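Quick question, first post here. What does this chain look like in 3D?
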Amino acid sequence: MRTPIIWINGPFGIAKATVARALNERLPGSFLFDPEEMGTALKKLTPKFTGSSQEHPMWIPLMLDALQYASKEADGPLIVPVTIADVARHRRLMSGLKDRGMTVHHFTLLPPSEVVQAGLRKQSDANMTSWDHSEVEQRMADFHSEQFATHISTGDQQPHTIAEQIGQHVGLNLRPPPSDPLRWLKALGGRR
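> Answer (accepted):
Ran it through. Tokens below.
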């Protein structure tokens, strides 16, 4: 039996991986599938390829094969945090998963644009971004389209709150969030 895929999409630098980890830690049997690993491998194993890993001609076929295999092996949902802003690439990937009989629950996290700009500045300082600042408005408009639904407005929400929204939408029972290990120290600080 294949497990469902929970795809967490959205702009760079908005804590998709943090939300995915929060969901993974509260969803028994789930598996956190990190597409960045495949992108890194493709870049290391392909001579002369210099583009974004998602532009590599083998990225989508390898993603489809890896997701299909992982879904057969996992005990619970696969959680996949990755930014896919290109409409054609997104359509091809989602169609390929559907053609293989896989169930995908796709969520796009939509933060305020100033959060995206701040995230891009951080990545640009670390030379990690593949978006030019001029692309932000177009990409955000793309993310608001129906193809990228279901949309979750992040605003000031915490990762565990977003994870709960995703769990409710998919119909999953999440464990309670872990308690804060420093709660006793914070309580002492509040008594002063």
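Residues 183-192 have pLDDT under 50 and may be disordered.
Helices lie at 16-26, 35-45, 59-73, 87-99, 113-125, 136-143, 159-170, 183-190.
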